[in-house]
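Sequence in, structure out.
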Amino acid sequence: MSIMRKPNLRRALALALMPIAAVALPAAAADDQKKPDNELVIGMSFQELNNPYFVTMQKALQKQVDKMGAKLIVTDAHHDIAKQTSDVEDMIQRGVDVLLLNPTDTVGIQSAVVSAHSAGIPTVAVDAQADGPVSGFVGSKNFKAGYLACQYLAKSLNGKGQVAILNGIPVTPILQRVKGCKKALGEADSIKIVDEQNGHQERDTAMNVTENMLQAHPDLDGLFSVNDGGTLGALVALQSSQNHVKLATIDGIPEVIKAMQKPDTPIVVDVAQHPDVEVVKALQLALKKYRGEKSPDEIPVDVTPVTPENAAGFHWGS
């Protein structure tokens, strides 16, 4: 019986491998038919565009695409994963050649990534990682950003006191920032994390959440906000309560950098990202993937701590 089964196993193995070869061959055959830069259609799906960080990213991308003479299609998911999935499916139908994806939900966007992959479209995630067969990822060193922010916060508190965390949406960068923050705070002598709530990275929500945390913890000494959108709301709550809570944040948006320069600012550090650098590197990576050129699967972009002392000299692009 075992002798009779060997040919069948070989046939089954050959049949199982055929779909793999069938997928690989068209891509190889199409290498010589790749479009020149000025005929490409670039797709960019943002989680939101009601944020200076992503507006800066969009402008930098548009400038780069204009230099190429290519066409750019941009969509705004408004933090709605169903809309973002639909946006990506629509761009696939419109014939984008490469896709840059800034997911509003790392896990929820997977079906859209699979669709783009099935259509043979290189997909590079930007700023936030996406589950599924992405071609690459470009993003900030988010663990480092969270670690540095809370290291500065702990130092400003002399290593002791009560700290709360203003969290955000469940995407990899936010999770990594919180993880880095907790590591830094854990290294302090006598700091206790007394609260952690989701401000959804939005000004109004973050303001209400911060007000609630201040009421629940009247002796609060420090606050870590995962992004500057939430920080702007937290600032309103902190200033209204007239307490002495110190604030650490991440992003580097102009409004927060300006607020840091006021004499009575509660902000001790804003660990700035570089959205213009991220998106240009993401486009370059996507083009290399499209042309089958040797390229990395991930490109980390460093972060820059901005303090009240050096804030006047900082702006994106510097």
